[in-house]
Design a protein that fits this description.
The complex is a heterodimer of chains A (about 525) and B (about 375). Helix content of chain A is about 55%, strand content about 0%. By secondary structure, chain A is mostly helical. Chain A folds into four domains: about 1-90, no CATH class; about 105-295, no CATH class; about 295-350; about 360-520, no CATH class. Chain A has a two-stranded antiparallel ribbon. In chain A, strands 3-4 form a two-stranded antiparallel ribbon. Chain B starts with a helix and ends in a 13-residue tail after the last helix. The longest helix of chain B is centred in the last third of the chain and has 25 residues, at about 265-285. By secondary structure, chain B is an alpha/beta fold. In chain B, about 35% of the residues lie in helices and about 15% in strands. In chain B, a hairpin with a 5-residue loop joins β3 (about 75-80) and β4 (about 85). The chains are: A mainly alpha (about 525), B alpha/beta (about 375). The interface between A and B is large, with 54 and 49 residues.
């Protein structure tokens, strides 16, 4: 244990030296940086041996595992070793949300029956109410992403939402979407096996993948297929017959239509023998889930997906195998998998920095957090994220958000740049509010919210107008000696060298704007 | 004077000239392909239920397999003594009567895959079931025979984030052309370098800059399209064409066909939206004098299982039917109707490889050697009118 710790220190010391060497582009302040980094390393314990990872690596860790780095956090983490930093991130995981949800989450659900029997006008009113509530719920979640002190837990909640997908578009009862979010939050860095069992019987999931109508003699394969293909094993590790048999085992899981609670309907359950992945027995749904979890492939499949979330688009088969073995041995403890992934050589490798796309959440929430831009009402941000392709509580399909290159096309790139440009622009042209209103209308349409009424739109436009970058305050984070140095600012703003070159100017608001418009700002 | 602005204005002026005076020959004259003819692909996302779209109403097995969700004989729109359209497709009857609607039946591939995601990848890349290809089939066609430089882009994706068959090509995603033009100044063309992710961003920046000089701002929005995503996307497609900008292919999509439960109402609405949008697009393009230069084709990852499931829905299936229409299309039924008496593992056997549909667009429509893009020979469907 001690040896491992010393090794980590040695590695991070080399990291600091590499850090310093990396500054060759601009030698003018090399000496200052050396002192700064050394100061960072010494500061942690006062011992000359406790060299921290330094700014560059702290930035990398935070940009990948939280929604945006803040200057304070980069500084704090730069004093820590890799191992200390990962432990600290994992210990910050508080599963409870930090803000109260909208009051209606505790109201009883509106049963399907009420919809069916309603007049056309009444139905439209109910639908409109649920669309508005959906928007409130999204805004609440964006608020959590912005302010939650449990950033890794927050990020993992979103990861699981994209894995165990359900969509408000189909589920309709907004309260069920909130309850599912509570479940994902609770187990976000908890236990995968428990999460799988719980989410499979989660009412929103039972509606989304039709389990609620999967009955003996009339099987519906939707859940049985997706639980194997997308939730646990991945394509190629099961056959069509396994799906048909498993669908029979999942019969009986249902929901109480009036309350939206999980309900076991014994008469609907098919109690005959089933054969799934070579095992035969009178299985129920939980037994099938256990069969899936017993497959070595399950741990690998999840680790590969986590790899794509945190490290790169190309999982390393040997490393995945090693980490998956630890994950299985821990009986699917998610923290174990994360500790191994974030501690792996691949996570810290230079070639895996700045090689991933920022998701809309990374770009929108991350930019506001990084530049300490105050947010009043986060609703416009939820709408913007939807327009960028990440509509919370409404993933595009059961596979969740595909991510990667799919985040950036000509429409979304221009919308991303417009957002950034608006935050950092120095001139307040009088046409700005009109542009904001037009954008809000576009975003609302793109999110299926329909037309915003005038009062609503003005309120949201005001919220956008309040989101402005305070350059003096932010640039004051840099030591006075370095405050004028563009390269120092660049190293915090971007994950790599700017594609358009470093603008030849002192560190000021315009420099930050130009860096944020550089293509590299889209990467993390 | 700023040189980059000057160049931009120059190209803009060229674009405007193309608009008013018609397109000079050189724009079309790519060796080996006539990209002046447009291809519009309509993805029916989630897997449209072919059997309730083109209904084998006279087949007793159909009523037996679909006791609860089958379309009743009295409601269908009959095409001949065997096949009929779903009643919600009424707007397509005008195209059928004008003999411009080709219905291609029995499309699929050997060793079918039942995953939405893998199967649409097969359709998007034009691969065999056991083969993984990186690029969309249209991107490969554009590599084999380049699209003329005067085009705004090789392809446009309107609505949705998936480039599908255009993945890997020089394509732009358009949600709102006016907004695109307003914002395009934020994109700067730069030489591709760095990580794969950075190269992608740089490519998109360049594609935007290139498309922006060719796209014209629109005048009044075009009228007559039904509400909904597909109507909106096809309206934008028509608007791009009306502005004089050229692309070789446009992809639009209609989502929501994965109906494992309570299919009838949802499916009827989707089909109505589909038929009304296509009919509106046709009228609009006829008005623009572009309908004879346009080929519209539907596709989807798979059809659905002939037997309904227990939740008034259908599970994933195989062979499917697709529509092809355009001013030069010779209407009628092609391929072979569903053989409900010859199911394999409860599913239909395909009779026509889906790549025959692609070979039809590449060969007879664009006039290129389809084998190069498809990596093999597929017989085109003879669905064009003799000129």
């Amino acid at each position: 244990m001690a040896a491992k710790f010393m090794a980590a220190r040695a590695t991070s010391f080399i990291g600091v030296l590499r850090d310093i060497a990396g500054h060759s582009a601009d030698r003018r302040f090399a000496a200052f940086r050396f002192l700064l980094l050394l100061g960072a390393g010494l500061g942690a314990t006062g011992s000359a041996f406790a060299i921290g990872m330094g700014t560059e690596e702290a930035r990398h860790l935070l940009v990948r595992t939280t929604f945006g780095l803040t200057m304070q956090r980069v500084r704090d983490f730069s004093f820590l070793t890799h191992e200390q930093a990962v432990s600290r991130l994992l210990s910050e995981g508080n599963p409870a949300a930090s803000k109260p949800p909208p009051a209606w989450v505790d109201e009883p659900v509106t049963p399907f029956r009420t919809f069916r029997n309603a007049t056309a006008e009444e139905r439209r009113r109910l639908q409109d109410r649920d669309i508005r509530r959906g928007l409130e719920l999204r805004a609440w979640w964006v608020g959590e992403m912005l302010d939650s002190p449990s950033q890794l837990n927050e990020r993992m909640t979103l990861f699981w939402h994209g894995h165990f997908t359900s969509s408000q578009q189909k589920v309709r009862m907004v309260q069920l979407m909130y309850r599912q979010n509570q479940l994902l939050r609770k187990q976000a860095t908890g236990n995968f096996a428990e999460l799988l069992h719980a989410v499979s019987k989660d009412p929103a999931m039972l509606v989304y993948l039709d389990s609620a109508s999967n009955r003996r003699g009339r099987p519906n394969e939707n859940f049985a297929r997706e639980v194997m293909e997308l939730f646990t094993l991945g394509e190629g590790s099961y056959g069509e017959a396994d799906i048909r048999e498993a669908a029979r085992a999942f019969t009986g899981w249902s929901i109480e239509l009036d309350t939206g609670e999980y309900l076991w309907r014994a008469p609907a359950h098919d109690a005959g023998d089933k054969t799934v992945l070579g095992k035969t027995g009178n299985f129920d749904g939980d037994a099938v889930l256990d069969i899936l979890l017993a497959q070595p492939r399950a741990a690998e499949y999840i680790v590969e997906k986590l790899w794509r979330e945190f490290i790169s688009q190309r999982p390393d088969a040997r490393e995945v195998h090693r980490i998956a073995a630890a994950f299985r041995t821990s009986r699917y403890d998610i923290k174990t998998a994360l500790r191994e992934l974030l501690g792996s050589g691949a996570f810290w490798a230079i070639e895996n920095r700045g090689n991933m796309f920022k998701s809309p959440a990374d770009l929108v929430v991350g930019t506001l957090r990084q530049f300490e831009i105050p947010v009043g009402d986060p609703t416009p941000l939820a709408l913007l994220m939807g327009a960028l392709g990440q509509n919370l509580f409404s993933p595009p399909n059961v596979k969740g958000w595909p991510g990667g290159t799919r985040w950036v096309n000509s429409t979304t790139l221009l919308t991303r740049k417009q957002f950034v440009d608006r935050l950092f622009r120095t001139d307040d042209s009088p046409s700005e509010p009109d542009a904001d209103r037009r954008n809000l209308n576009d975003f609302a349409t793109a999110n299926g919210v329909g037309r915003l009424n005038v009062e609503e739109r003005e309120r949201l436009a005001k919220s956008i107008a309040g989101m402005r970058f305070d350059s003096e305050k932010w640039l004051a984070h840099f030591p006075v000696t370095l405050a004028g140095d563009g390269e120092t600012v660049r190293r915090i703003v971007l994950a790599g060298e700017p594609a358009g070159g470093l603008p030849a100017m002192m560190a000021n608001r315009e420099l930050v704007r130009l860096l944020a418009l550089d293509p590299v700002f889209q990467l993390k | 004077m700023n040189i980059s602005i000057g160049r931009r204005q120059f190209l803009g002026a060229v674009g405007a000239g193309l608009l008013s005076g018609g397109l000079p020959e050189f724009v079309f004259a790519a060796p080996g392909a006539d990209y002046g003819r447009l291809l519009v692909l309509v993805e029916l996302k989630g897997g449209n239920d072919g059997l309730n779209t083109v209904v084998p109403y006279a087949d007793a097995a159909y009523a037996r397999l679909r006791p609860r969700i089958g379309i009743s004989r009295d409601e269908v729109l009959k095409l001949d003594e065997k096949a009929a359209l779903h009643p919600s497709l009424e707007s397509l009857m005008a195209l059928w009567q004008a003999k411009e609607l080709a219905i291609v039946q029995g499309l699929g591939y050997e060793d079918p895959n039942f995953s939405h995601f893998r199967s649409i990848e097969i359709w998007d890349t034009g691969s065999a079931s056991n083969q993984t290809l990186g690029e969309g089939w249209l991107a490969r066609a554009f590599s084999a025979v380049p699209v003329p430089v005067g085009f705004a882009a090789e392809g446009a994706v309107i609505g949705g984030l998936e480039n599908g068959p255009l993945a890997g090509s020089r394509c732009v995603a358009l949600a709102n052309p006016d907004q695109f033009l307003r914002r395009a100044r934020l994109a700067t063309p730069m030489r591709a370098s760095g990580s794969a992710a950075l190269q992608h961003v740089l490519k998109v920046e360049s594609d935007i800059a290139q498309a922006a000089v060719r796209l014209a701002g629109s005048a009044a929005p075009l009228q007559g399209f039904p509400p909904g995503d597909l109507g909106n996307s096809l309206r934008i497609a028509a608007q791009v064409l009306a502005g004089g900008a050229r692309v070789a292919a446009i992809k639009v999509s209609l989502n929501g066909f994965d109906n494992h439960q309570n299919q009838p109402g949802v499916h009827a609405n989707l089909l109505r939206q589909f038929a009304e949008s296509i009919a509106a697009f046709r009228s609009c393009l006829q008005g623009l004098g572009q309908w004879n230069n346009t080929l519209v084709m539907t596709y989807a990852e798979f059809g659905r299982r002939p037997a309904e499931n227990g939740s008034m829905g259908t599970d994933h299936g195989t062979s499917n039917v697709h529509f092809v229409t355009g001013g030069r299309v010779k209407g009628g039924l092609y391929g072979e109707g569903p053989r409900l008496d010859q199911l394999e593992n409860e599913n239909l056997r395909h009779v026509l490889d889906f790549r025959s549909l692609y070979a039809t667009a590449l060969g007879p429509w664009w006039g290129m050697d389809s084998g190069r893009a498809l990596g093999g020979r597929f017989e085109p469907v003879p669905l064009f009118r003799a000129v």
